[in-house]
Amino acid sequence: MIKVKIKSPVRPVVLTLAGNDCSGMAGLAMDIRTQTALGIHTAPVTTANTAQSHTGVDAVNAVDNRVLESQLKAASALPFAVIKSGLIANLQQITQIKAFVEKQPVPWVCDPVLKASSGEQLHDSASANDNTFNKSVLNNRQPNDDYLSRFKTELLPHISVITPNRDEAVALTGQPIKNHQDVEHAAEKLLAMGAQSVVIKGGHRLSQSPQFNNWCQDYFSDGNKSFWLSSKRLDTVNSRGTGCAFASALASALALEYPIYDAVVIAKMAVHQGLRLGYGHDLAQGPVSIQAFPDKQIDLPCLTSQGDFALESFKFTDCNSPAMGLYPVVDRASWIPRLAPLGVSTIQLRVKDLADEPLIDEIKSAIKLAKQHNCRLFINDYWQLAIKLGAYGVHLGQEDLDTADIEAIQKAGLALGISTHCHYEVARAHSYQPSYIACGPVYPTDSKVMPWIPHDLQGLSYWRRVLNYPLTAIGGINRSRIADVAKTGVDAIAMISAITQADDPEQVAADFVKLINTNKA
């Protein structure tokens, strides 16, 4: 008998410390389901066995100190990439977990579980091995100052990302939260206490900001970059385990080697997916149900620098009728009459070597020629001149979004395209509802130095699944690659040097138009 050797896929490992929820709604049950859905292997370490149901928590049975120690030792045999923690049941566990994480050179995502959804306190100040406390005790317990003090002084300085909800942020900082500014100040306090980064989750409404009650808003800060993530509130009661799911999704994204800013966006998308797909039971609300790595625009949050950003205030014109197709990026107006007659309906003018009157004259000439050839002309960067001179649209990079007057561009009736390279930037572009989103680099490119890893066809296909916007592929695309790129279903393929540096640009452009039309999905 011949044995066939099967090469199995390798999954990153997340070492996960949390309580066991016998109802299967939260804790380790939710952690394992979420991490598995995102392509992660969970190494589960139980901190407590809780007795709970839809009526509340009946008992919290913290594991013996020696049991926790033995689990940590055994789980450490696996090459875990990230630590994720939920319920830490008592002071002794704080000491044990501190001693453990101090020795680990991996990120730690901490969900500071202080209360159950039904309101019971879940931690204890005891250090003894017998840490069983029942419903009558739970119902009469108050937040324990000793526990909170030890948590803040011993654990916070080792936490890579802490993910409290607003009630937990209040308990940890002692600061009431009533509005967006309070959330930001609470995050600053947690950073000052030692956390490397903070996500304050926003499932709870900001009562003094009723215009935002239809949105779930989370706030991230690491002291260098801060932003808000806003998703439409869903009308569902099946929301058990959202905190566990968020932290697990965040830990999973980090284990998959996404940068922290992308990982937070992915976690927000995953929880929104889980809320959409959550399921219930005959007698009770059920859990969120994250079933796959998020790949739907409906789950994509809006990313903004301000919590009171006027969400849904932007909506730019659709620029994909007729289909954009080949999208040359050129540096002079003289390219327009050469390329437009070849079936090119959209061109971008990107001028880097002119200023003042010569720049104005070049843009003015390009707009005139584009109108003569019935071609949609996007002006790169120079949005003020595009408005003043009456261009069809503006294309902006991420850095331009910091200074451009997006409202003025919209009021002028111009189309808007935005460059993106990652989840963070796509979520940021999404908040403006642009005419198209450009995604790149697809392949390595020499046109500019880029810090991003190329998407390749798999990554480009992912963004095609996610986005309902017209999608432009850009970066390193040439004759040998253009057909495969077109097959992903993108709406436009931006080309720079492959056309402008060709020996016969017109023939090359005509060939590219034919290849796109022949191979488009």
Automatic annotation (TrEMBL):
Q: Where does 4-amino-2-methyl-5-(diphosphooxymethyl)pyrimidine bind?
A: Q348, L349, R350, V351, K352, N380, S419, K448
Its pathway? Cofactor biosynthesis; thiamine diphosphate biosynthesis; thiamine phosphate from 4-amino-2-methyl-5-diphosphomethylpyrimidine and 4-methyl-5-(2-phosphoethyl)-thiazole: step 1/1
Say yes or no: keyword Membrane present: no
Protein name from the UniProt record: Thiamine-phosphate synthase
The free-text note explaining how the cofactor binds reads: Binds 1 Mg(2+) ion per subunit.
If you read the UniProt record, what top EC class would you report for this enzyme, in one word?
Answer: transferase
Would you tell me the Gene Ontology cellular component terms? cytosol
Which cofactor is essential here?
A: Mg(2+)
**Positions contributing to Mg(2+) binding:** D381, D400
Example GO molecular function:
hydroxymethylpyrimidine kinase activity
Free-text function comment from the UniProt entry: Condenses 4-methyl-5-(beta-hydroxyethyl)thiazole monophosphate (THZ-P) and 2-methyl-4-amino-5-hydroxymethyl pyrimidine pyrophosphate (HMP-PP) to form thiamine monophosphate (TMP).
Classification via Gene3D superfamilies: 3.40.1190.20, Aldolase class I
SUPFAM superfamilies assigned to the protein according to its UniProt record, in alphabetical order: Ribokinase-like, Thiamin phosphate synthase
Which segments constitute the Pyridoxamine kinase/Phosphomethylpyrimidine kinase domain?
Answer: 21-127, 144-285
Q: Which organism is it from?
A: Pleionea mediterranea
Q: Which UniProt keywords apply?
A: ATP-binding, Kinase, Magnesium, Metal-binding, Multifunctional enzyme, Nucleotide-binding, Thiamine biosynthesis, Transferase
